[in-house]
Design goal:
The protein is 44% helix and 19% strand. With 166 residues, the protein is of the alpha/beta class. It has a five-stranded parallel β-sheet, with helices on both faces. The longest helix has 17 residues. The relative contact order is 0.20. The mean pLDDT is 95. 4'-phosphopantetheine (PNS) binds next to strand 1 and helix 4.
Length: 166
Amino acid sequence: MPRTTRLAICPGSFDPLTLGHVAIISRALSLFDRVLIAVSVNIRKQPLFTLDERALMIRESFPGETRIDVEQLTGLLAEWARTRGAVAIVKGLRAASDFEYELQMAQMNRHLNPALDTLFLPTEANISFVSSSLVKEVAALGGDVSALVPPHVHKALLARLAERRA
Ligand code: PNS
């Protein structure tokens, strides 16, 4: 039976990508035909990496995966999703504390684009404590975050923090 390609968007700041993000993107790939990763500006946060750097780190985390695209998003997600023909936004939920803000964004995105749904995936319990903000904070204070991010991200993180200290 002919069917159209089902495209999902995984949006986020990805500053930097963690293994939590990698798991959610991988699960989105098993549910949808294609996944578009939207590396987004979050006006509430001051980034450590540029949008270009973050996008490159994501591409390098999925070598040879042809069903993933990585793009930068500087505008409104709901509008951008419409132009790409996406049917869903996929987001990971780590804890109940994530839910309130994520629900608000999901409802706002649906208000702006009624063709778009948001799918929340519960994160794996063993990495539910991982966030980009905490990874940056712990790494900046000398803690070991090597098990929480891909190896090339870990290298880039240590290099950027060393630059900042110099
Ligand atoms: O990883 P984050 O920082 O929690 O991701 C938040 C993000 C980037 C998904 C959110 O800030 C976003 O959607 N930004 C794009 C601009 C937009 O559409 N804002 C209105 C959201 S309802």
